[in-house]
Amino acid sequence: MGSQVSKQVARRKAITTEKRTLYDLHQSCGEDFPACAFRPSDRKNWMDDLHPEKLQISKIVWPGTHDSATDRIGIPLITRPFAQCQSLSVYLQLVLGTRVLDIRVQKDRRVCHGILVSYNVDVVINDVKKFLSETQSEIIILEMRTEYGHDDPPDFDKYLVDQLGQFLIHQNDNVFNKTISELLPRRIICIWKPRSSPQPKSGSPLWSSGHLKDDWIDTDLPSTKFESNLKYLSELPPTSSRKFFYRVENTVTPRGDNPVVCVRPVTERIHEFARLFITQCFSRGIADRLQIFSTDFIDEDFVDACVAVTYARAGGKA
């Protein structure tokens, strides 16, 4: 019992120290990157506002959400706080400016996070379709994956093509060199990551898992996650020479050996440092590697920061 208490005391000290490290870094360098004061006039149509005929796919910093379809997961006040990573529906996330969705499914086509399940994936698909019907030039990266520990939904690739076929941008490495306008009227890059089913092949309507990569660091320590994100990003080639999307997640996650196991109070340890992260990307000379930037509980300022860097790149300022 005593050793367990000592372990938790040490854990709390480590978290406090790491939060102080980020606060000190923020105090020393602030939030300063090209066009950082830019705010889109219409987050729902921010890609359209940045001139789709000029904006290349490789120049976009894509605001994304982690575990996107968890707004209604589990039982309110009982299991939901342990698995909820977003409070907004997928549709409202898209309206806010989110352009990368992380959707986890299990064998009966219900969305899930770990062992907790939520609504049928049809809810997500209908939200995406509704958003696309209300906009003209917004491109979405839709990552669909079978959650760890679950079986693939039967014939899920056929389901996705049947539901989204008219919008799907087919798997082709040349897409990375194209502008948004050159891809229209197709609007979705759908990456299907099954556990055991065959991967989509080149030229198919769906994209294989190798086209969306990340280096997930399972930690609740904010500075550890922050610096690891920078390290892994620094090891990549620039976005202009990559033929895959790379995601950095501004999140930390609850750990089973810590008393705090609800997502929101844990992820808030790093949530406010998104602009600091972008600032550090520029100061360390690796801003040209940044591509997908995702978060829990996405908000306007997070979207604005990603759009600002995109705006700067489109204008040749970054």
From TrEMBL:
GO annotation (BP), single: lipid metabolic process
PROSITE patterns: PIPLC_X_DOMAIN (PS50007)
Pfam families, sorted: PI-PLC-X
Phosphatidylinositol-specific phospholipase C X domain span: 51-193
GO molecular function: phosphoric diester hydrolase activity
InterPro entries in alphabetical order: PI-PLC_domain (IPR051057), PLC-like_Pdiesterase_TIM-brl (IPR017946), PLipase_C_PInositol-sp_X_dom (IPR000909)
Full protein name: Phosphatidylinositol-specific phospholipase C X domain-containing protein
